[in-house]
Amino acid sequence: MTANEKAMKKVMDLFHERYGERVDEFLVPPPVLFLMRGEVVDVDLEAKLMIVRFPILPDYLNPYRTVQGGIIAAAVDNTIGPLSMLVAPPNVTRRLEMTYGRPVTPDLDAMVVEAQLVEHKDRLLHFKAEVRDPSGTRLARAKATHWVVE
Fold it and tell me: Which residues pair with 22 in a beta bridge?
């Protein structure tokens, strides 16, 4: 079993543990995570943290041959989303704010998103995320607010 398969199994076990029989009500992990070929690197429920690696695919490039900003935002959303389901009741994204710092280029091979829940107050969840290249250079950062629906 590869490291990614082990990590994905861990995530699925956590979903089954958290939701029990209700897990079948959800598409977990979401199909878009597979579409983007996301690989779970780590999940730490104590720290309320998830790290996912996304390869840089040619289909992600804009006319400047850098990854389109919406794809970077989708990678962030595909990391915060599963994390949010593991650390809080069912919820939806209300706001996602991206700040781009450096271009994401094909020579980087991958972007790594680290997301963390920083506050859970009443029905609001506040997350932060950073997008880095494989060597650790920050490429973008994000803040997200989610709303608990139950």
Answer: none
Compute the average pLDDT of residues 69-84. 97
Query: Token match 């543990």: residue?
Result: 17
State the sign of the Cα–Cα–Cα–Cα dihedral 45, 77, 38, 113.
Answer: negative
Residue with tokens 């280029």: 105
pLDDT for residue 123 is more than 80:
yes
Supply the pTM of this predicted model.
0.94
**First-to-last CA distance in the chain?**
36
One-character DSSP codes across 82-100? HHHHHHSSSEEEEEEEEEE
Tell me the mean pLDDT in the region 62-69. 98
- Of 74, 125, 21, 37, the C-alpha closest to 8 is 37
Can you tell me the distance from the alpha carbon of 105 to that of 9, in angstroms, rounded to the nearest whole number?
Answer: 30
Residues 3-148, CATH architecture: Roll (3.10)
pLDDT at 29: 82
